[in-house]
Design brief:
Helix content is 36%, strand content 18%. The chain is α/β, with parallel strands linked by helices. It has two domains: 3-124 and 237-299, 3-Layer(aba) Sandwich (D-Maltodextrin-Binding Protein, domain 2), CATH 3.40.190; 131-234, Periplasmic binding protein-like II (D-Maltodextrin-Binding Protein, domain 2), CATH 3.40.190. Strands 2, 3, 4, 5, 8, 9, 10 and 12 form an eight-stranded mixed beta sheet that branches. Strands 1-11 form a two-stranded antiparallel ribbon. The protein has a two-stranded parallel sheet with strand order 6-7. Strand 6, helix 8 (164-176) and strand 7 (186-187) form a beta-alpha-beta unit. The longest helix is centred in the N-terminal third of the chain and has 13 residues, at 3-15. The radius of gyration is 20 Å and the shape is elongated. The termini are far apart.
């Protein structure tokens, strides 16, 4: 897909979020989550600039949470997103970065002193997709290892998404499933990301891919694939927030960023994340991850 078309697809995905993202308790993409009374003392000035990877923005979670933060704090929050959020942070244009923990730039940014210690905030979700006929009979399973074993045993086609994290996960699944013989059922030439999902649809194969990009792509492509397994915690991808260090990047709002980070980690806001759903998927697609931080850090939030 040409870059401009991809960007327009993403913008359209966010604009049409209310037709894609459903939620309990009246939570919809592009709408504010109701404020919690007394959650935060109003602050009438200050601005926090946030840069994030795309998935939590396209999935509607971060815009909704930031919308409520604006109401409760009185602070102005700006949000930009792409897959290189640390680039803007290095230029002093960002106060808080949200990315996957394994993002290629997270480690270097923090170790160079440009950012504070990463705090786990939530996890987004991969899914195991496959044809509606489900030849391996994995629909209804909750174990990804068991599903992979059934795919191998039935010799149903499985297309390897070459994205590094998914390639790693597939290798893990192969070991956990008892190292079944590799044969024609394992298609290792599927490329990655959009190429992988398109080829999997063409070959009626199983494939691992992100739920958010799948929801986005099926708006413009009639992929004959369905999310068949999403409940296994192995499919979660931890995401972190990193407060930019004003000591190394003068002019950044470290205090405001820390306040927003505390808000995202608060038990009340963490609980709201469970309310976000996608059509046809019953369980929450955003897993709260605040509890993974150090106990001393959590004690200051309650």
């Amino acid at each position: 897909m040409p870059l401009n078309d991809a960007l327009m697809t993403r913008r359209r995905f966010i604009e049409l979020g209310t037709t894609i993202l459903s939620a309990e308790a009246g939570v919809l993409a592009g709408m504010s989550i109701p404020a919690v009374a007394g959650a935060m003392a109003p602050l009438t000035s200050g601005r926090v600039r946030v840069a994030s990877v795309a998935t939590d923005v396209e999935g509607g979670l971060l815009p909704a949470l930031l919308d409520t933060f604006r109401l409760e704090s009185g602070m102005d929050v700006t949000l930009q997103f792409d897959n290189a959020p640390y680039s803007a942070a290095r230029q002093g244009l960002v106060d808080l970065v949200i990315s996957h923990f394994g993002h290629r730039d997270t480690e270097g940014f923090v170790l160079q002193g440009l950012g504070m210690w990463p705090r786990t905030v939530f996890a987004n979700q991969l899914g195991l997709f496959g044809p509606a006929v489900d030849p391996a009979g994995i629909r209804g399973l909750t174990s990804l290892v068991q599903a992979f074993g059934r795919i191998a045993q039935s010799q149903a086609p499985y297309l390897l998404n070459g994205t590094p994290g998914i390639r790693y996960l597939t290798e893990f699944l192969w070991h956990a499933a008892g190292k079944p013989p590799k044969g024609n059922w394992l298609i290792e030439t599927g490329g990655s990301k959009q190429n992988a999902i398109a080829l999997a649809a063409e070959k009626e194969a199983y494939v691992l891919w992100g739920l958010t990009p799948f929801q986005r792509e099926r708006m413009v492509h009639s992929y004959r694939l369905e999310p068949l397994l999403t409940a296994d915690p192995l499919l979660q991808r931890i995401m972190v927030s990193v407060v930019v260090n004003a000591g190394h990047l003068p002019g950044t709002n470290t205090a405001g960023a820390a306040r927003l980070q505390d808000y995202l980690l608060s038990p009340a806001v963490q609980a709201r994340m469970l309310e976000v759903h996608y059509p046809g998927i019953q369980q929450a697609v955003w897993a709260p991850a605040g509890r993974h931080n150090a106990a001393s850090r959590l004690s200051s939030l309650i």
